[in-house]
Design brief:
231 residues; alpha+beta; Gyrase A, domain 2; Cyclophilin; seven-stranded mixed sheet; four-stranded antiparallel sheet; ATP-binding; hydrolase activity; hydrolase; Sporulation inhibitor KipI
Length: 231
């Protein structure tokens, strides 16, 4: 059955999920951001918040002010209007140290891809990463852009107590953990960059749509930055 996009799905009594497609891609992410920015530029009555993701935008509203039908009508009008291209977003420099004890899966990734560890590192650093969404845990920013040769499946079993700051890859996505958590993704390094922050007005370093450039640091720099709690 062929899906028709955009599609609108009611979520409880206070939200509408607007889906623009079903395949993660740069083109679709740009359309999601374009819609999110169009909503911000001309917010419909009753709008509370928008939450963009890879293929959709969750639109939350005040059910005492509007309803699903009125919100869908307002959003459809935005598709008919001339919308500005999505902004490129801010480019963030994110540190990563690839020392062996900080990258327990790096050798396995190299073996699975038929590459040397140095080649894996070089390819990871050369990736063009964009923040596609937040999810799973506070500050977990899912980045698209992992180069195709590094797009390996998740492990069959998750590993517990992975330290915060671990740099992970799985399929086309990359992530820097913010808390000690289990993961089934491949751990290829560790970062000192603080993505989850104490600022109440801006608790996350990235906005959806921002870009990330990983920068390699040596162990001495890693230890120095870690001791200061900053990148």
């Amino acid at each position: 059955m062929t899906s028709i996009f955009p599609s609108f799905t009611a979520v409880a009594d206070h939200a509408l999920l607007v889906q623009l497609g079903d395949d993660i891609s740069e083109e679709l992410s740009a359309r999601v951001l374009q819609l999110d920015q169009a909503i911000a530029a001309a917010p419909p009555s009753g709008l509370r918040e928008t939450i963009p993701a890879f293929v959709n935008v969750l639109v939350e509203f005040d059910p005492l002010v509007t309803d699903h039908i009125e919100m869908e009508t307002a959003l459809r009008a935005l598709f008919d209007a001339d919308a500005a291209p999505a902004s490129e977003g801010v480019v963030h420099d994110v540190t990563v140290c690839y020392d062996t004890d900080l990258s327990p899966d790096l050798d396995a990734v190299a073996q699975a891809t038929g590459m040397s560890t140095d080649a894996v590192i070089a390819m990871h650093l050369a990736g063009e990463y964009r923040v596609g969404m937040y999810g799973f845990a506070p500050g977990y920013a899912y980045l698209s852009g992992v180069p195709k040769p590094l797009q390996l499946p998740r492990k069959s079993t998750a590993i517990r107590d992975i330290p915060a700051g671990s740099v992970l890859i799985a399929g086309p996505q990359c992530l820097v953990t913010t808390l000690k958590m289990p993961t089934g993704w491949s751990i290829i390094g560790r970062s000192t960059t603080q993505i989850l922050r104490e600022a109440s007005d801006r608790p996350f370093l990235f906005d959806v749509g921002d870009r990330v450039q990983f920068r390699r640091i040596d162990r001495a720099t890693f230890e120095s930055l870690s001791s200061r709690g900053a990148s």
